[in-house]
Amino acid sequence: MGLAVKKIIEIINTNEDLPHISRSNYYDAYTRDDKDQVNHGDVIARIQEIYDEIKNRYVAPGYRRITHILHREGYQINRKTVNRLMRKMDLYGYVMKRRHP
C-alpha cells in the first residue's frame, strides 16, 4: 500500500463528518467500476445484440439462453457474470406465470 493511500484514508477517518473507511473498501471501490468495462466491454455489446435480436422474434431471453449462445460463439464467460451484466444493463428475461394458483 502506498504512502499516499495511507494518508488519504487517515485524513478521511480523522474527519468526524465523513464515514469511516477501511483500506479494503477503498481499493474495492477504486477498482470495481473499471472491472466490468475493461474486461467485458465486447461481451456487453454482444449481450445487447443477442437480447434485441431474440426479443424481436420471440420473448425476451434470460441469462441462461444468452450464456448458451455466447458459449457457442466461443466466449468463455460464466453464467453468473452474464446475469450480473444483464442486471446492470436492466435486461430481464421473460418469466412465465404460474399455471395453477
The quaternary organization reads as single chain
- Could you list the spans in which at least 5 consecutive residues all have pLDDT below 50? none
The major pleated sheet works out as: none
DSSP strand tally: 0
Alpha-carbon Rg, integer: 20 Å
> What share of the residues lie within helices?
55-70%
How many domains?
Answer: 1
Number of H/I helices: 4
Alpha carbon gap, first and last residue: 57 Å
- The proportion of strand residues reads under 5%
Shape summary: elongated
Order of helices and strands: HHHH
Structural class, judged by helices and strands?
A: mainly alpha
The averaged pLDDT comes out at 85
Pfam family, one: HTH_21
Protein name: HTH-like domain-containing protein
Organism: Lactobacillus helveticus
InterPro entries: HTH-like_dom, Transposase_IS3/IS150/IS904
Structure report:
Pfam families: HTH_21 (PF13276). Residues 43-99 form the HTH-like domain. It comes from Lactobacillus helveticus. This is HTH-like domain-containing protein. With 101 residues, this protein is an all-alpha fold. It has one domain. It has four helices and no strands. Helix 3 (63-72) packs across helix 4 (79-88). The longest helix is centred in the middle third of the chain and has 35 residues, at 23-57.
Offer a quick outline of the entry.
By secondary structure, this protein is mainly alpha-helical.
Q: Mind sketching the topology for me?
A:
Elements: H1 3-14, H2 23-57, H3 63-72, H4 79-88
Helix pairs in contact: 3-4
